[in-house]
Design brief:
By secondary structure, the protein is an alpha+beta fold. Helices cover 28% and strands 29% of the residues. The chain is built from 16 helices and 33 strands.
Length: 725
Amino acid sequence: MPRKKKSSFGKNSPNKLASNLEKTVLQYIAGKRYTPLNASDLAEQLNIIPAHIEILETILDKLVAEKTLVCKKNLYQLPKNDQQLATGTISVHIKGFGFVKTGLGPDVFIPKHAMQGAVDGDTVEIEILPEVSPKGPEGIIVAILKRSRSHIACTVTSKSKNGYLAYSPLMGPDKPILVKSLKDLPLEEGDRIICLVTAWQSERDGVEASAIRRIGHISDPSIDIPAAIEEFELPHEFTLEAVQEAKQYGKRIGTKEIKQRKDFTSWEIVTIDPDTARDFDDAISLTTDAKGHFHLGVHIADVAHYVKPGMQLDEEAFTRCNSTYFPGKCVPMLPEELSNELCSLKPNVARLTQSVLAEFDQVGKLVHVEICRGVIKSKKRFTYKEAFQILQKKKKSVHAPLLERMTQLCALFKQQRMERGSIDFAMADNVVIVDEKGVPQGLERVEYDITHQMIEEFMLKANELVALELARRGLTLIYRVHEEPNPESFQEFYAFARSLGLTLPAEPNHLDIQKIFAEAKDSPFLPQLSVSFIRSMRVACYSPDNLGHYGLALEHYCHFTSPIRRYTDLIIQRLLFQELPKETDLTAVATACSEKERVSFRAENSVVLLKKLRLAKTYFDEDPTRVYSAIVTKVKPFAIFFEVADFDLEGTLHVSQIGQDFYEYHAAKMQFRGSRTGETYSIGQPLHVQLNRLDLTLRQTEWSIVSTVKAPRAKTKKGRHKKGK
């Protein structure tokens, strides 16, 4: 580790010191990569000893008085004649930085030190800086115009002289919350509570709040989901009017409605879904003709038939914008009377659909497409596991030929995607299994086998065909867009790939990236390589502006196939059959759906993380000396990061904690090497680690390395129960 350099101002006379320091400050602030800092951060960056900080503050005051510098929100910078201000909504990352969506271009990156106490969802005014960072345009918050909330969910960490200190994932560990409890609401450490914010203060001063309701205690896993619902303000109860509207349709489809549609009830149509799924919104048919052409039918639940504009059902759906899936529980977008019953494409019952009927030749080229309203009667409800067993000849089924045809067409679609530059990860997923009380039982590894792949390919194709059809009609629609990343954003990914020994040209393209993923397909670091690539890309979102989809390498793409759980898909269904009111503001809908999707994602991940930590705590309580298999996932100049296989948890160790040696960081190889022992720590390296401490409230773990190993990575522990959706 490089030593922190000493201050260069220690031996100078006071006058000379002040003069030199003023020059140094101005030179530093005028630098191209400078972002506005406060006095304390400036002192740290300039390595100024504590005894000279008062001199620094005097100099800064002088420079501001002379208008050489300007000070906004305690942040110092040069005056700018071309100051660019914008307003927007900030999305805050769990690590403390944020992005502001202004509507004027790409989202603006806000570094952690420039957040000014803003929290997720706040409306802020920002100054956009002239320099562009690897994360895109960069700015600083100059004002918080509107708070996104008045209440926050938090967990009590300790008692203080003025009340209690509490932690909220929304605020982060650097923003303590001072909670004043009511006389009739006594609190103790570990209580999960809802607070009314009485004073939003600076990042350093924290937040003041009053406790108004206790949810439960952090030791109780049954309240993880209710607490997350409160924390992320997820609507979870339907109005009586909405439920009544759903119930009015009954449980069966009328013969009149069936006669008005194309009748597919005699067709061989099946659904393939996870074990515990209850809302089946897509079904598949596939035949071949004498020419060897494929006739694919993607049949999607006709939610638009039941949820009409102006209904309370529609208002409730738009309030949610999507379903949120937690371990063992779903917070649905629509009442169960629709989501799990009348709109669910259950076997052997008539169900209304919007169907994409497409003909493809022997090589998968589109010949003809028709989109119509129909009625189906699914012949079989397959789980992924059952369908896979049939394809492996381990189980017999009259639908085996259908499944075989599906694999053939899937292969053609997949080949087309690869040829146009789409990146295929095909990664397995680890699903947390919980019992009826929310207690985690283990992880179930769900392989991304051929059954998952073929359903995904058919949904991708249907979404693409619908987007193309609406564009052909000249209609404005809500696209699913994925913008091309900045070239700078990929540099870390390229460096990572090269550090693993993978071959990349100086300026890689889509095909080059495909090749390295194919090369790394069976390697232990494929998951880390995939994560690094995803982090380099921009987040997909919804927009009426067709910006294309970089990840899929498609010019036209929308979401159509999941109207039970996504509001954008419902909008697309209405557009297809001219049922969308002309006054609908698609920009507002797209913005709301993008934001609600992000919030749901954060809520889901927060509960999953807590369940994994609870599983780790169970193991720790049983045997504190237990040793776990891990694998190094990242190496940074200051630390190594690793994944513990048993819990799918990330751990971190500072360089000073990794061994009895002086470790130097080698950037080219992304590796630590011991100067005395020659011991190395590199990405993909197996480790044996031990859990030393776990804090459920702060979602933190502390680990130590027992030994490095050369053995292959341990497999994920399988759960004892079936997985949830």
